[in-house]
Every structure is written in C-alpha cells, then in structure tokens.
Specification:
mainly alpha; 66% helix
Length: 59
C-alpha cells in the first residue's frame, strides 16, 4: 500500500512540474511572437509601391 501512495504522489508531482514548464515555454513563445518585427513585404506596402492583388479562395 505504501508503494502505491509513493508512486501516486510522484506521478502527481511530475504532472504539476511538467505543466508548469510547458506553461512557461508557451508564455515565452507568445511573448516572442508578440515582439517580432513585421515582415518586410508589409513595410514595403505602406510606402505606396504597387503589389500584386490579393488572391481569392474562389479562383
């Protein structure tokens, strides 16, 4: 009975710690995506240069 309690306790601890690390990695990635520079094509579109028309799903 003691080994069942020990294994259950370790499993719960590993799950909590694993969830914390996954949550931190996800939050770090979200911050990284939020602070990325816009792609060069978008910067070019704002300068008044013409570009190809947007493609439609109904072609």
């Amino acid at each position: 009975m003691g080994s069942v309690i020990l294994i259950s306790t370790v499993a719960i601890l590993v799950a909590v710690v694993g969830c914390f690390f996954i949550w931190r990695a996800d939050a770090a990635r979200a911050e990284e995506v939020e602070h990325q520079a816009p792609p060069p094509e978008r910067a070019r579109l704002g300068s008044g240069e013409s570009s190809t028309p947007p493609r439609s799903l109904r072609s």
